[in-house]
Design brief:
The complex is a heterodimer of chains A (191) and B (132). Chain A is of the alpha+beta class and 191 residues long. Chain A contains 5 helices and 5 strands; from the N terminus they run αβααββααββ. The chains are: A alpha+beta (191), B alpha/beta (132).
């Protein structure tokens, strides 16, 4: 197990029989240039991490992939200018939760304060809110729906820290939520 | 730019004044490519503002982000305004999960097979089809 923890983390091939889950919280931090191209790599990484290093189900691995993608895109669009970085931290609390933190540098042209972001998300998560236009569904309809906690804070550098947490409510169940998505075109792997 | 492709084929129809197309999506629609790829569908809508019937084949679509959902909603609005229709077929479970969480499956019906989707696409509205 110790050797495995020292290895660079890569997504093992699909169907890897054993998950790497130790008792201690595992924290991984990645710094990413502010370019949407690199976010696809973070999506792949998230999928592999959740599948193989946590006890969340396949369905949730895909959901966290979307959550991370939306948080990173938001940080790039609003918080960090071209050439800067965003910082993504994953903290897995075995048998308890996964926490994901995305920080921007605060140098973006369209930057917002944490209170503005909190207000926007609160407004858009109202069941009576009607989404019009192309944008505006990422944080309120995907991130907020698929996490138990979503907190925005202002950072010392003038940026935003978005912190989300999802609790693993019943670690004995392979699927934490009922999966209504029976679809013969998609193979659910028992990893 | 992340890899994504959109290909368009005609669907033969017997009714005059109707244009029906099979639109196949492949790869990942994300922030790096979706604005560019969306133009293909807007061009199609521009050429066929009335009675455009689109069957979106999502079998090989691996990922879509919230902006892609926004575009899909916009296409739905424009096409239905012109008396047309959109249906979706062969969606992977992760894509269907996203469509459901944003509430889009309440607007656009999703079908397991292309045959079911084609049938539903060209049905008269009163006949309605059961979506998966």
């Amino acid at each position: 197990m110790e050797n495995q923890q020292r290895q660079p983390i890569q997504a093992p091939p699909a169907g890897t029989p054993e998950r790497v889950v130790s008792g201690k919280p595992m924290e991984i931090t990645i710094t990413l240039p502010t370019n949407a191209y690199f976010v696809s790599g973070i999506r792949d990484f998230t999928l592999g991490l959740i599948r193989n290093m946590t006890e969340f189900s396949e369905q949730w691995a895909f959901r966290f992939q979307s959550v991370v993608d939306e948080l990173c895109n938001n940080a790039i669009e609003h918080g960090s200018k071209q050439g800067d970085n965003i910082v993504i931290t994953f903290i897995n609390h075995p048998k308890e939760s996964i926490e994901i933190i995305v920080r921007d540098s605060g140098s973006g042209k369209a930057k917002m304060s944490a209170s503005e972001l909190n207000r926007i998300v609160k407004e858009r998560t109202d069941p009576h809110y009607v989404h019009i236009g192309i944008r505006g569904r990422g944080l309120s309809k995907i991130v907020a729906e698929w996490t138990d906690e979503l907190v925005f804070s202002d950072t010392e550098t003038g940026g935003i820290e978005a912190r989300v947490k999802k609790y693993l409510k019943d670690p004995n169940l392979p699927q934490q939520t009922g999966n209504p998505l029976e679809n013969p075109t998609h193979l659910v792997l028992n990893v | 730019m992340t890899q994504a492709n959109i290909t368009i084929e005609d669907i033969p129809v017997s009714t005059e004044g109707i244009t029906a197309k099979l639109v196949k999506f492949q790869g990942q629609l994300d922030e790096s490519n979706v604005d560019e790829k969306a133009k293909t569908i807007y061009e199609l809508i521009e050429k066929n503002p009335q009675n455009l019937f689109l069957l979106f084949d999502f079998e090989e679509l691996e990922y879509m982000n919230s902006k892609s959902i926004g575009y899909l909603t916009d296409w739905y609005g424009k096409i239905t305004e012109g008396g047309g229709k959109i249906v979706v077929a062969k969606t992977r479970s992760n894509i269907l999960d996203i469509l459901q969480v944003v509430g889009l499956t309440q607007l656009i019906n999703c079908y397991t097979t292309l045959d079911e989707a084609k049938l539903a696409l060209l049905q008269k509205p009163a006949e309605g089809g059961a979506a998966s």
